[in-house]
Design a protein that fits this description.
The strands form 4 sheets. This protein has a 3-stranded mixed beta sheet. Strands 2-3 form a two-stranded antiparallel sheet. It has a two-stranded antiparallel sheet with strand order 4-5. It has 2 domains: 63 residues, no CATH class; 209 residues, Alpha-Beta Plaits. The radius of gyration is 21 Å and the shape is globular. α1 crosses α10. 34% of the residues are buried. 34% of the residues lie in helices and 14% in strands. It has 287 residues and is an alpha+beta fold. β6 and β7 form a beta hairpin.
Length: 287
């Protein structure tokens, strides 16, 4: 390994270690008036057709889900091969079907924990993962309060997998595939402001139909996915122990109080990876 290349790479990696004030500023630059795009999920309208699972797999070149009735007999979780899914819950109001995927937090803990900015909160709102910047530390997985990012343990070149709210389609002026193909019209795409207004209007118009809370409006500082329900959210698998304060604000003091070696080690590994990759590419080009 070339010593100069390694030191240069380590210097770049070390540059990701920001001061506390800089980090806080970068995490809080998106205020409540930022027009992030999001999706409203009205669970009272979901019929459990699971068409969103099919179109998501097709859109993102993933294996087609089996679509067996037995799939709904137990709670399922997203995976490297399935970015969104439908769960069925037996509640006080009978069966309720719930779509699950990345919540696309306004101030995502996964992006805050990512030292190389591989996990990124885009200006439009979706949280995306960029493979060319990832060093494989998996801090995003540990930090997510919704247990969403998944890692390809069985591949030679692992990747992180999660819903991107069809960010590429949004760049082309299209809606997320799940919204466009929802047979029960349980999904609505728009800005968070529009979606919150719509959700409140539905609750006001039919107060006996809805539980009077919009999940995601304030949890962990707000999320891109917002939910309406006919029953309390703990009955349909949601965490109700989360604070309204964004998670990055809760963890920053701790992160800057840990021993410096714990902070420098990921940067060291990134530098080592970059330098080794550069050497390999150079050797292959000369060969």
């Amino acid at each position: 390994m070339d010593r100069r290349d390694f030191l240069k790479a380590f210097g770049v990696a070390g540059g990701t270690l920001l001061t506390k004030n800089t980090l806080l500023a970068s995490e809080t630059k998106s205020g409540p008036d930022t027009e992030f795009k999001g999706i409203l999920v009205d669970t009272t309208r979901c019929v459990g057709c699971r068409n969103c699972e099919l179109v998501c797999a097709e859109t993102h070149d993933l294996p087609e889900p089996a679509m067996e009735d037995s799939d709904l007999d137990q709670e399922r979780y997203t995976s490297t091969k399935q970015l969104t899914l439908i769960n069925r819950y037996d509640t006080d109001n009978g069966e309720v079907f719930v779509k699950r995927q990345c919540m696309h937090c306004n101030q995502p803990a996964c992006a805050s924990a990512c030292l190389t900015k591989a996990m990124l909160k885009t200006e439009e709102g979706p949280v995306i993962w960029r493979s060319n910047k990832c060093m494989g530390c998996r801090y995003c997985m540990v930090s997510c309060p919704f247990n969403i990012p998944k890692f390809d343990y069985d591949k030679p070149v692992p990747s992180i997998h999660k819903c991107t709210m069809c960010w590429e389609r949004q760049q082309e002026g299209e809606q997320p595939a799940c919204v466009e193909n929802c047979l029960g019209e349980a999904l609505m795409f728009g800005t968070r402001r529009e979606l919150i207004e719509e959700a409140n209007s539905r609750i006001y118009a039919e107060p006996d139909k809805y539980y009077h809370h919009i999940y995601g409006e304030n949890e962990v500082g707000g999320t891109g996915y917002l939910y309406l329900s006919s029953v309390p959210f703990e009955q349909i698998g949601f965490r109700t122990d989360l604070e309204d304060k964004p998670l990055p604000e809760l963890t920053t003091d701790f992160l800057y109080g840990v021993p410096i070696i714990l902070t420098l080690w990921p940067a060291f590994l990134l530098a080592l990876n970059n330098a080794t990759k550069g050497k390999k590419d150079k050797t292959e080009s000369e060969g």
